[in-house]
Structure formats: structure tokens, C-alpha cells
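Supplementary Methods S3. Input chains for the assembly prediction are listed below.
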Amino acid sequence: MIETAQLALQQTGIRLTPQRLAIASVLAQTGKETSALELYERVRRRHAYIGRATVFRSLDMLVTAGLAQRLERPGHVSAYIWCEAGHHHHLICTTCRTVEDLDEDAVAPLAEAIAREHGFRVDHATLDFYGECRTCASGNAGAPPARRPTR
Amino acid sequence: MIETAQLALQQTGIRLTPQRLAIASVLAQTGKETSALELYERVRRRHAYIGRATVFRSLDMLVTAGLAQRLERPGHVSAYIWCEAGHHHHLICTTCRTVEDLDEDAVAPLAEAIAREHGFRVDHATLDFYGECRTCASGNAGAPPARRPTR
DNA sequence: GCGCGATTTGAATACCAGTATCATTTAGAT
DNA sequence: ATCTAAATGATACTGGTATTCAAATCGCGC
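Predicted C-alpha cells for the full assembly:
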């Protein structure tokens, strides 16, 4: 898991530091959308010390490098997900916070329809679906406790 | 325009105050997505005085009452649009900030496909498309000046 | 119209995610 | 091992939003 992150980081040509590696691998491990400060806590627990600023900076890097994606949580907080394979859209389970990927192809027809019917050139869409995943829906036995809604 | 807002407010059963009416009608008039502080300025210009806190509180009210919707602008700022009819998705022009509504029907097939293929129950989707509207695309002669990007 | 209690307002202030600054440290090329 | 550009961490700061609380006000019953 750490190796995955390390490899991915090196391929982008950005400088490899222990902090960045720690952040990337923690993020890659969870498979969930995680806020910067949650990551800060997590990384600190296993990595001796890391500054808040570094977490924010590294996450920005990961996003610009295309290794992570930023989501907006309600309450003006950014959350991040490891997203090596390129941009796409997400199904985010509000119970367990797990993120599934949604293929670009599934969305393309909609964007085209909009361009055609409204004469609107779509540059960017926030296309994230919140709901309940299969696992949580079918008797959420082993599911971790739902987080309290932010508002 | 003011009457529209007033009527809508009264129907929700919340108490009618001049401040709330002012905020609602200014929001209803613009047809654009507007941040809380932009609204604060606007309302102050025509309404003698209003406190910042009141603007935030009133906007929260409007959102919970279903009369407005909250969007997330980049930079952790909320923007609001008047949204009486319960429309839920939007085409937001990044040049003139005008908001067009996107019919629920246009999106429904996508949500169904997701439910079917991923076993994922979609509760809520942020489905806002950012781009350039017809007017701005076709020689944006009469278009208002583009706002400076937030970041 | 008048009074009254609950609600709302405004001012100040707290809050909090995120950003800027800057001296110190470090990655990685030579 | 040396060197330089880049990264880090401590700290202070920002700007949007939330909270608090005394004062003002809505709107209901009379």
C-alpha cells in the first residue's frame, strides 16, 4: 500500500518526502473521503510529527498531481480521496463514508444532452452522489457507526 | 417580485420580518448565485441597515424552508440561489453567474442507472454544472464583466 | 389600537478551516 | 560530502460563519 503511493508520487516527479509519503499512503489506505484535519490526526498517530500546514500543502499537491480529488463537505470543509486513476465522479456512502467510483461514461450522455438542449458548455461538474451503499443497505451489521451530520 | 417573496415566506409559516423579506426579495430578483456577504452588501444599499448575522441566519432559514438552495463556491464560501419551485440542479455560468435550472427528469435516468448497477441508493446529489451559457458563449457583448476568480 | 410573550435582531465576539510568512531543515543532483 | 532549491513547522493571521445576549419587534388575543 505504501509502495503504491510511493510509486505514484515518484512518477509525478515531485519531491519525495516522508511527510508526503505518509499522507498519501494513509489516504490511499482508507478508501474513504477524509478531511485534511482528520488526515492530520491519523498521520500524526503513526508518523512522529507533522505540521498542519504541511498536510494542507501536501493535499493540494496531490490534487494538482491528479493523485487525489477534493470534495466539498457541508460546512465548508474539504475532503479528499485517493484517486490515482484519473478524474471521475463518486458515490459516497453517508453511513460508512466509503467511496465508489462512477465511470465518466455513465455521465457523458447527460453532459451532452445539456449542451444540446441548453446551449451550455459544461466545463466542470460536481457530480457526487450521496446515499447508502449496498453493504450498509443490506443489514448494516459490520458497518462503523454513522458520523453525526455536520449541520 | 417582492410580493412573490413575501407570499412564499408567509406560506412556510415562519415569522415575517422586514429583514427576511428584504433578503428574500433581493435574492429572488437577481436570478444569480450570490454569496452571503454579497447579499449583505446589496441588502444594505436598499434597506437601511441589517446585521451580518441576520443575513446568515435568514439564509439558513430560506434553505431549510426550501425557498433557497446552497451551493459551494470554491474557497469554502456558500452561495445561494432563490429556488422556490423545488428545482434541484443547476447550470451555473462562470462568466455571468446566471443560474439556469436543470429539470429533475433529465437526471432521473442517471440516478436509476446508478441504483441498478451499483446497488447504491441515491439520497442526494450535488449536480451542478459549471460552464458557459449560450449568451456568454456567443460573443459575450452585453455580458456583465466576469468576476475575478475566487482563488 | 394595546399589551404581552416568544421570536428575532444586531453588536460583539468566538470559532475554525485554511493560508501566509519565514527561519530552519532536507531531498536529491553533482 | 557539498550545495541549492524546495519543503517543513511554528506561529500569526484571515475571512467566512456561528454563538451569545441584551434590546427590539412581530403578531396574536383582547
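Chain B has six helices and six strands. Strands of chain B lie at 34-35, 68-73, 77-82, 89-93, 99-102, 121-132.
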